[in-house]
Amino acid sequence: MNERTIAERITFHDAIETMEVDFSHLTMADTVQVDAFYDEVENRLADTGRRWYFLVVYTDCVIQAQAWERFAERGKGANVAHGLGTVRVGATSQTRDAIREHAGRASFRANIYDTREQAIVALGEMRKRRRDAQTAAEETFLRVENVSLRFGGVKAITEISFEIKRGEISAIIGPNGAGKSSMLNVINGVYRPQEGTVTYLGHPRHQMETHEAAAQGIARTFQNIALFKGMSVLDNLMTGRNLKMKCNFLQQALYWGSAQREELAHRKKVEEIIDFLEIEHIRKTPVGRLPYGLQKRVELGRALAAEPILLLLDEPMAGMNVEEKQDMCRFILDVNDQFGTTILLIEHDMGVVMDISDFVVVLDHGQKIAEGTPNEVRTDPVVIRAYLGTTH
Amino acid sequence: MLYREAGQFKASYKEDQQIFPIRQDRIAIALILAFFYLVVPYFASQYWLQGIMIPVLIFSLAAIGLNILTGYAGQLSLGSAAFMAVGAFAAYNFVLRIPGMPILVAFILAGLCAAAVGMVFGLPSLRIKGFYLAVATLAAQFFIVWALTKFPWFSNNSSSGVITAQKVEILGYAFETPEAKYLLTLAVVTVLALLAKNMVRSSIGRSWMAIRDMDVAAEVIGIRPMHTKLMAFAVSSFYCGVAGALYAYTYLGTVEPEGFNLDLSFKILFMVIIGGVGSIMGSFLGAAFIVLLPIFLNVAMHALGGWVPQGISSNLELIVFGGLIIFFLIVEPHGLARLWQIGKEKLRLWPFPH
Amino acid sequence: MQFFFEVLIGGLLSGVMYSLVALGFVLIYKASGVFNFAQGAMVFFAALTFVGITELGVPFGFALILAFGAMILLAIATERVVLRPLVNQPQITLFMATIGLTFLVEGLAQGMWGASVRGLEIPGIQDEPLEWMMENTGIGVSKFDLFAAGVSAVLVVVLALFFNKTRVGRALRAVADDHQAALAIGIPLQDIWRIVWAVAGLVALVAGVMWGARNGVQFALTFVALKALPVLIIGGFTSIPGAIVGGLIIGASEKLGEIYIPPFVQSTFGLETNLGGIEGWFPYVMALLFLLVRPEGLFGEKHIDRV
User: Fold this and answer.
1) For testing the chain B interface, which of A186, A187, A239 should be mutated: the one with the most B CBs within 10 Å?
2) The CA-based dihedral angle spanning residues B102, B104, B105, B109, taken in that order and rounded to the nearest 10 degrees
3) From the list B16, B196, B216, which residue is nearest A226 (CB)?
4) Residues of C numbered 166-185 whose beta carbons fall under 8 angstroms of chain B's beta carbons: which are they?
5) Which CATH architecture has domain A7-136?
6) Residue boundaries of the structural domains of chain C
């Protein structure tokens, strides 16, 4: 009963992302037949340019022993290249055993069902599991929802919402007093908003202790440099690693064994950051004696020492000359690139913001007036009126 | 030409992280220790040992304690003497009430008692800073001295709270001569100073300094303010407590709560300011300076004889102390320790001016 | 009940004294951001100088003027020697400097006038109960305390007028709000500091004479003055009404506490010891508890850290 062509045996069900392959009443005797069948399947799959679930119907299908090897191999190949999962229907017990055997794994779930209905239900479950996993993988990295912050009667932030994506460089811009710094302070728990939630790594929260934010991988720099003035560059950076140090104070007091090992291991890590930021020559200098630009760089280093997931930079280039700005830009891009750190920055230099950001949020008078890619924002008339037009 | 770093290359972070990275410093420290352990006990007079060396060492320890709190963690305290009192009375009671209590264990327990009390009075530091906190520590100062006077249990029912320290005996050896007491004090102080130095160069010390320099930034990088400040109070009070125990056991022998008054707290604060805020070395220099200054003034007054009016000479100490504090805060806020540093830097460059 | 009121009124009136000292702190803190630990020493210095001058045979009023002159000199010297070199230093450094100043001033005062305890008489005012009050209600209120309260009230009114109605006063308030702004509009900071320290000196003089007349002029005055610190914590560091109310609260509560708490504790726990003398620490502990509830004080402004 081989009257149906191979092409006729292949059906795409777009609604359930499934390609159905019908082997029913087919006898495969040698590798040539198998190859002919799979060549057609793979061609059709490649044309769609996407991945599919496979529903395979084996009713009264006979595959001879010499063809099995080839069959299993080609099936696996198609699955790897184009498949999301496979369900099988109507295989005889012989076929089942052969499938299990050739799949090569004892625990292999062959997903063989008696009826087509059962197979399609199972397929539905499979699709749902995958969707959930996908959502989890793409879970909210950082979402700010309806956040309002007041100091006494003064409204610093009014009902601001936005979302930033993992791995991107995002920027908050806006005129002085727009609430940019306050926004950063809300994100890492320095200020507690009266209303709204901040969702970070999938966990919504209303308030958070600052050091908890640090423990969850949020680091930041400050608008007015907030280095530890009495300490050397090295010590400032080492302080950035404080959270990762586990020895108790008694071990530290003895400075023996594990405490010393820990100190040295972290010193090594800090030296890598010192190399990265090219500040080797000043590592033992008290930060108070450094020029402004270098202090900014050290502050970035202190934040990096914590190996953050999210790095908040509050005007990292304020008060710098062109050369220093270029350096800082390079460091920011490198951090994003090399360490995969997500960066949210506030900056006044529009050129810089537009160059390095993937996403821009514009605030004015404590409210969000626009968001989007640098290009979208640049051309937004509201933004031009509120910000660019008046101050630049 | 002797004091040079040149040629001392650090091949590992371990070498660079040593307590004294410069070889000459290590030699100098070894010489200083040898001098105080081996030479001083044989050549110093009883008066020098009992009247100057022992109190200098004890005050150095108390000053290290206050320096940890004020100099490193930035929390001003005007109640150091009260924590010394806790240490002295706790040690007395441990030895008195627990038969066979080894004296060094009693000292440690006394320090722990002081640490516990210190933490209680440090609690307000979580909400207040600077001179607000100074007022809170005044509460400790007045309350503790009052409590030790009013509850006779602390002094084993002696009148007005006077206690007489028991004999100091370790493994059957009685520390009775000034030399022996001096060496015991020196040993305790050396060990504790070394531990303090290690703490301030480790992550706990960096946390303290971070809280001191910029508390918001410290919190943002994950330093828990409560934990860090209370730790500073605890460690600081521990040092003051042990110093208090030594004060009773190796220095005065007989002490009363009123002896640990506000004036003594101020004296310790002055040691820290003049010696060097945020310096272990400075604590020693400051203690020596404050102990020696009145003696020096006395000698100077005697030398001048009748030239100085009676009224002035008795108050000269107050005036000189006050004036020096202002002078140091203006001219050299890092105190004698900084002068010491500058001296070393000069020496490193000598004979070239720059 | 009658006894209770007597203690309460006595406490309130001695609280007026604390208020006076606290007032000096507030003035200086508002104008220069300096927490002047030496205010107590200034009270002592002023009282001792005044007594010293009267002992030379100078009449009361003239001695007051001379003593005020001495306080002005002290203010000028302080500005020159302590404040100016330490400008822009952290507050805590200035605070420690004023601790040094405390010792210096105490030493100077005793050096000039001797360390013995002196009596101080205010002509016409005796420390005796007010007769009609005693007869009608049975509550004893010292004439002297009332007089002191009256003087303090007048002083507060004069200061309020000075700050609100005069050009210098307004300038002082400008400085208090923002040093930079004051400089920018041409108010000489150093003059302001001298004036405000001199005014604080005047307050110290009044406080010193009052305290001295009550308890004699002696070194213990400086400890009494320390009690102004808890007053400030309760009242807020920047508020003149706060200093007044705080002083009254501390004065009343420590006297009531002294009378009622020790017997209560003793009977509750069956202790035989005498727990008197809690006055020494009670105000501080009260201030501490207060800090936990309202760190900025009753009238203080809440401070927001900008980062």
Assistant:
1) A239
2) 130
3) B216
4) none
5) 2-Layer Sandwich (3.30)
6) 2-223
Q: Is there a contact between C38 and C244 (Cβ–Cβ < 8 Å)?
A: no
Q: Is the ipTM of this complex over 0.90?
A: no
Considering only CB atoms, C307 lies closest to which of A151, A152, A185, namely A185
Which stretch, A249-263, C55-69, C174-188, C220-234, has highest mean pLDDT? C55-69
Q: Under 8 Å CB-to-CB from C300, ≥6 apart: which residues? A: C235, C236, C237, C238, C239, C242
- The pLDDT value recorded for residue B265 is 96
B residues 25-84 lying closer than 8 A (beta carbon) to C: 74, 76
Give the pLDDT confidence of B1-52 residue by residue, as tens digits: 566 666 677 778 777 887 787 788 888 889 999 999 999 998 889 899 999 9
Per the domain annotation, does B176 fall within a domain? yes
Q: Is residue B162 part of a domain?
A: yes
Residues of A in contact with C304 (CB under 8 A): 151
A152 touches chain C (CB under 8 A): yes
Architecture of domain A142-391 in this structure: 3-Layer(aba) Sandwich (3.40)
- Count Cβ–Cβ pairs < 8 Å, chain B vs chain C: 136
Collect all residues of chain A within an 8 Å Cβ-Cβ radius of residue C302. Answer: 152
The predicted pLDDT at position A110 comes to: 63
Nearest-by-Cβ selection for B202 from A259, A302, A303: A259
Query: Are A170 and A359 in contact, with CB atoms under 8 Å apart?
Result: yes
DSSP symbols for A108-149: ----EESSHHHHHHHHHHHHHHHHHHHHHHT--SEEEEEEEE
| Residue A391: per-residue pLDDT | 46
**Cα(B82)–Cα(B260) distance, rounded to whole angstroms?**
6
Residue B171 within a domain: yes
**How far is the C-alpha of B327 from the C-alpha of A344, rounded, in Å?**
47
Residue range A287-342, pLDDT digits in tens: 988 998 899 999 999 999 999 999 999 999 888 888 888 889 989 998 888 888 89
Of A186, A157, A191, A189, nearest in space to A174 by CA: A157
Within 10 angstroms of residue B192's Cβ, the number of other Cβ atoms is 21
Does C307 contact A226 at a Cβ distance shorter than 8 Å? Answer: yes
Residues of chain B in contact with residue A252, where contact means CB-CB under 8 angstroms, are: 198-199, 202-205
Dist CA C159 CA A388 (whole Å): 50
Q: Is the pLDDT of residue A124 over 90?
A: no
Specify the pTM: 0.82
Q: How many domains does chain B have?
A: 1
- Residues of chain A in contact with residue C307, where contact means CB-CB under 8 angstroms, are 181, 185, 190, 222-224, 226
The whole domain housing B49 covers 22-261
* Structure-token pair, residue A225: 């440099």
pLDDT, tens only, C98-116: 999 999 999 999 888 887 8
On whether the CB atoms of residues C60 and C71 are closer than 8 A, the answer is no
Phi, psi at residue B202, to the nearest 5°?
Answer: -105, -170
Q: What is the mean pLDDT of residues A362-374?
A: 90
Alpha-helix runs per DSSP H in chain B? 13-16, 23-34, 40-43, 46-47, 54-66, 80-97, 103-122, 130-150, 178-200, 203-213, 215-220, 225-246, 262-275, 280-304, 310-331, 335-349
B300-331 per-position pLDDT tens digit? 887 876 666 665 666 888 899 999 999 999 99
Q: Please tell me which residue of chain A has the smallest CA distance to B217.
A: A226
* Residues in chain C within 8 Å Cβ distance of A222: 307
